[in-house]
Amino acid sequence: MLERSALPYGLPDFASISDTDFEPAVDAAMAAHRAEVAAITANDKAPTFANTVVALENSGQQLARVLRVFYGVLGPDATPERTDIAARIAPRLAEHSSAIRSDPVLFGRIAAVWDGRADAAMATDEYRLLDRQYRDGVRAGARLDDAGRAEMSRITARLADLTTEFGRLVLEGANAVAVPFDDESQLDGLSAGEISAARTKAADAGRAGLLLALELPTSQSSVAELTDPTARRRVFDASLARGSGGDENDTTELIVEIAALRARRAELLGYPDHASYVIDEETAPDVDAVVALLTEVVEAVKPAAEAEKSALRELAGGELEAADYTYWLERNRAAGAEVDVSGFTSYCELDRVLRDGVFFAAGRLYGLSFVERDDLHGYHPDVRVFEVRDESGTGIGLYLGDYYARPTKRGGAWMTSFVDQSRELDEKPVVVNVLNIPKPSAGEPTLLSVDQLTTLFHEFGHALHGLLSDVRFSSQSGTSVPRDFVEFPSQVNEHWALHPEVIANYARHVETGEKAPAELIEQVREASGTETAHATVEYLGAAIVDLGWHRLSADEIPEADGWRSVEDAALTRAGADNALIPPRYRSPYFNHVFAGGYSAAYYAYLWSEVLDAATREWFDANGGLNRDLGRRFVETVLSTGDSVDPIAAHRALIGGPAPVEPLLRRRGLA
């Protein structure tokens, strides 16, 4: 791992790497990185962009390579051995990074280049790199006194411990509370593939009967389909109870300590709270702007939410429980449809959707082709490897697909990279998409629900952002953009999942090969055309809970048993409390916020969706799925990463700032 792999595109040689290699590699790479930084600080020549900023950018490549491999396999295959390694190295890595970024001598050199920037005639990407390094130093505490830097270092190391542990407990907690059923009659309403997956999960766990795995969000797709109210309630209650049961997987003590340490760090750096500290680095101008957007959508969704609730009560013939909401929501949708759209699943076999849908759209828009490389292998037998080629047939990188759920894979779906594109380092990208589709029994097809179909296109949008990157510096490559912009390209790519030309190309019946009927496709498109009020309300709830925690000062953080009070106060204050629709994530299993990179930034999905909705209208108004528009999107957004101001790039794409009205129209709230 310390050296660039000899495999095509630098794909890590996973077969030659064992778990016992990771810690020695991390330690050796950290030592090499420290030596490289020491050489920069010991340079007796005046600081310049080349001998300080570029030198720092290019330092630590061994460490970056090792960590991309380790964390790249940890998320999708978090064995007990790997989670133990992660727990051991997290504080060491945090201390290492903090020591470098807060080093007063190194920061002095960066500051000297920063002070002379007006006379340096730097290119835009060079200026942005200098600006990033300068701000990183400030935010790491480089301008604090010795005591302040020492406290920052302790906070950083402790947060690394706590967030790693939170992620471990969320994964283990989800596996521990997978809901058991004695026979498949209790799972009436689920598809044959879903029942097969539940039987397989039970067998893998050495149990009789069936085990229904929990998905990461509060809402469970199975709850929308199970006909037995008792079964629905068991699954829903198990979902809500995760992480707060007082058992070995309880995360509430971690939550309050994480929130308090984040608040103290913000205080040390002069911010009023952690939310202000985070949003200062995003495209949103400040916390007030984020709150204003959330408030506008909260108010806009209230009439739709009330109408939706009334319709469901009438359909159910009485009062609703939270555990029944999505079940009746699905029945309401089906009742309004002229055809049963649940049958669309039979036209969405995974491999066909991937090749004739996802790859097809990328070919039409961006001129890309995908060739499966059976001679190359991923970190798990389920992982598939594709070489990505441009219109001339030249290879531009590798795309890895890891689609199936397994007990060691953390919940959700994501994209990450094993190699970041960089002209400076002469490296092309190697990216991976990770999903959690239940794996059917051997010989049975993998059929996608509409939600899974959308997720596949969404995550591939992130992959395209990495694959089509064309920047000089690796730290500006692909998805290395502000958190509230990173979701924008992936949300745009969702648009093509049900585009007439794309859906006509992949939607074939899994058994007969016949095309999906036009009326079925139209009903699916109409059903997916706008978000339900439920989806909007549960998302807003999670974003508000996130800010609720991270707008508190350290003195305002409650004891562990008071975590609900933080949620309740935040939701009530925002006018977003809804007894029938809990937040998409409750605090004890809010992995994005307490283990991932979305603390005080879960609003980013909505912020990005404003850009996305405006961009979809731009695509539709100018011809939709065509090469010219794809080329324009690549040139202005996908290829530039963080080498330019992302919002300026978006404005250049659509010809001005993004209004909020397209978002409200798409969510049925205009």
Descriptive notes:
The protein has 670 residues and is mainly alpha-helical. It has 4 domains: 8-170, Neurolysin, domain 3 (Orthogonal Bundle); 177-241, no CATH class; 243-336 and 532-670, Neurolysin, domain 3, CATH 1.10.1370; 345-527, Neurolysin, domain 3, CATH 1.10.1370.40. Helices cover 54% and strands 6% of the residues. It has 25 helices and 7 strands. It has helices spanning 19-41, 49-58, 61-74, 80-101, 104-115, 124-139, 146-176, 192-204, 229-241, 252-268, 274-279, 287-316, 325-336, 350-366, 450-467, 483-494, 500-506, 518-527, 533-550, 563-573, 591-594, 604-621, 627-638, 646-654, 661-666; strands at residues 179-181, 210-212, 369-372, 384-389, 395-404, 414-419, 430-437. The strands form 2 sheets. It has a 5-stranded mixed β-sheet. Strands 1-2 form a two-stranded antiparallel ribbon. A hairpin with a 5-residue loop joins strand 4 and strand 5. Helix 14 crosses helix 15 (450-467), helix 14 runs antiparallel to helix 17 and helix 15 crosses helix 16 (483-494). The longest helix is centred in the N-terminal third of the chain and has 31 residues, at 146-176. The protein is globular. The model has no long low-confidence stretch (mean pLDDT 95).
